[in-house]
Amino acid sequence: MNILQINSSARAGNSYSTRLADAAVEQLRAHQPAAAITVRDLGRTPHPMLDETTLNALFTPAEARTLEQQARVALDDALIAEIQAADVLVLGVPMYNFSVPAQLKNWIDAISRVGVTFRYTEQGPEGLLKGKKAVVVQTRGGIHRNSPTDTLTPYLRTFLGFVGITDVQFVYAEGLSMGPDAERDGLAEAYAQIEQAVSA
Question: Full-prediction pTM beyond 0.85?
Answer without folding.
Answer: yes
